[in-house]
Amino acid sequence: VDVVISVIWELFILAFLVFSAVSLYLRYMRLAFCFICITTLLLVTLKIMKKVKQARKRKRRMLLPLSM
Questions:
Q1: What is the pLDDT of residues 2-23, one digit of tens each?
Q2: Which 3-state string (H, E, C) describes 23-65?
Q3: Which residues have CB under 8 Å from 12's CB, separation 6+?
Q4: Any transmembrane segments, and where (predicted)?
Q5: Is 5 helix (H, G, I), strand (E, B) or coil?
Q6: Would the pTM of this model clear 0.90, i.e. be above it?
Q7: How far, in Å, are 50, 60, 61 from residue 64 at the CA level?
Q8: Residue 68 to residue 57: CA distance in whole angstroms
């Protein structure tokens, strides 16, 4: 499930990068800037989500009894 969500996020990021390149080619600077900003926000969000999930997993592992 996590892999599918990550792949979907990566496809969104790739699509926004392509849209920004096309809008730069067609000389729509504001639109390209908006797409680049959205892409960076998506990248930052994806990194934060990965860190939070890793922290949760680490915390759950620490809560297990040592006998397990």
A1: 789 888 988 999 999 999 999 9
A2: HHHCCCHHHHHHHHHHHHHHHHHHHHHHHHHHHHHHHHHHHCC
A3: 42
A4: 7-24, 30-49
A5: helix
A6: no
A7: 22, 7, 6
A8: 16
